[in-house]
User: What shape does this take?
Amino acid sequence: MCRRPRFKCAERVFDSRQAFASLRAFRSRLPLPGGERDGVRGLAHFGLRAAALAVAILASTAHAELVAYKIVGDAIPASLTGNPGDAARGRIIVANHNTGLCLLCHSGPFPQDKFQGTMAPDLAGAGARWSEGQLRLRIVDASKFNAATIMPPFYRVDHLTRVAPAYRGKPVLSAVEVEDVVAYLMTLK
Ligand code: HEC
Assistant: This one.
């Protein structure tokens, strides 16, 4: 659901998945896998690469295991972890320009932060406008509310494009972090 017409305009010119993937690429200034180094040749090289690939596949399968959750209507009523989140930690995630990236698009009650977004509703009052379960689904996968949303899915690993290798198979936020963000948003009444 797109509540305000100006966000519709933003949707047309802005592919959220692509933009977010390049942001993630920007964040992932990690060294290339060792197998790419020059000067290693022959069977040993092949063996090393095969082993590295096997490890990479195992690692990505392990990361791809998201907690199972159930969508009821437009909400995920139950906590992903089975426990309530920590609102103080959630505030840090939302305010941090490298972890949540929320303030890239949103503004919120962070008077000290001069660099806040204007492409999405102000987060102030989000806890009054939405239920806890609706906020949880919105963070997990906002496309369930609006198929063309520019808001990235924070707890989804499939159907993403141009994800940097280091981030493949991993959700942007962990289940614990999603719960912390939800707990913080619920304090914004
Ligand atoms: C790339 C831009 C973008 C990012 C990053 C983003 N959002 Fe959003 N968000 C939107 C847009 C646009 C909407 C308006 C509804 C829609 O189009 O999905 C929205 C809607 C919402 C809403 C409902 C707002 C309301 O009250 O109507 C909440 C809550 C929310 N986002 C929270 C977050 C949080 C928390 C984060 C960070 C963890 C985040 N968003 C990151 C773009 C973004």
